[in-house]
Amino acid sequence: MAVVVLISGSGSNLQAIIDATQRGELNIEIKAVISNRSGVKGLQRAADAGIPTETLDHKRFASRPAFDHTLQQHIDHYQPTLLILAGFMRILTTEFVRHYQGRLLNIHPSLLPKYTGLNTHQRAIEAQDSEHGASIHFVTEELDGGPVILQGKVPVKITDTPAQLAERVLQVEHQIYPQVIQWFSKGKIQLVGNHILFDQKPLQSPLNLTMEENREQ
Ligand code: GRF
Question: What are the contacts of 121-126 at 24+ separation with CB within 8 A?
Fold first, then answer.
């Protein structure tokens, strides 16, 4: 299955996907990694794995639609079956999202619908949540609002700083993203309208992975 991954930064989720592919757990080919920021670590990770990379700097475009239009052309050159947002820090236009509807996945560092947007770890700590995590969802026109497929949960410790909590959440992110991509590649998950079918049956609520993070700590 041909895949394109969009990143903006460190690319640790990209690395988890590359690693799962190299271990033979994921039957995908990452055709390209495209970043809107130059010089980021994720581009180096891709290059190290022999994956073609591109940088498309959004600041060089006059408008959001102009950037998204060109980005779409670059992506479609690779004819991906699935487009993966892995720390891609851009709000996408409706046209772009519609073009990839049903084959566009994102990871968001919160237990959606809680904490859409930014600073999710800080907000979970301030709210004194006992549990936090990450969500993999289909992207729809509503920001961080598309139907959630799988969530990974981690405990919040009283002493946690946002950075410590982010680190714990990242560990769970690295487990849930490859899992969902594997399901997608096997045709187990489908977006129909605004709903998910899992093995042809409606998914009433997100699946959960709670977790192997305990094993790693
Ligand atoms: C992750 O926390 C992801 O949930 C969010 O951005 C971060 C990306 O991390 N969307 P990385 O670039 O994969 O290391």
Answer: 121/162, 121/163, 121/165, 121/166, 121/169, 122/162, 124/156, 124/165, 125/156, 125/160, 125/161, 125/162, 125/165
Tens digit of each residue's pLDDT, the chain (217 residues)? 999 999 999 999 999 999 999 999 999 999 999 999 999 999 999 999 999 999 999 999 999 999 999 999 999 999 999 999 999 999 999 999 999 999 999 999 999 999 999 999 999 999 999 999 999 999 999 888 899 999 999 999 999 999 999 999 999 999 999 999 999 999 999 999 999 999 999 999 999 987 554 444 3
Owning domain of residue 95: 2-215
Atom of ligand 1 nearest to the CA of 134: 4
Q: What is the CATH number of the domain that holds 66?
A: 3.40.50.170
Distance 107 CA to ligand 1 centre (A): 7
What pTM did the predictor assign?
0.95
Instruction: Please work out whether the CB of residue 9 comes within 6 Å of at least one atom of ligand 1.
Output: yes
Give how many domains the chain has, as a whole number: 1
Q: How far is the CA of 13 from the centre of ligand 1 (A)?
A: 6
**Which of 107, 148, 165 has the most ligand 1 atoms within 8 A of CB, as the residue to mutate?**
107
Q: How open is the CA angle 147-166-18, to the nearest 5 degrees?
A: 70
10 lines ligand 1 (CB under 6 A): yes
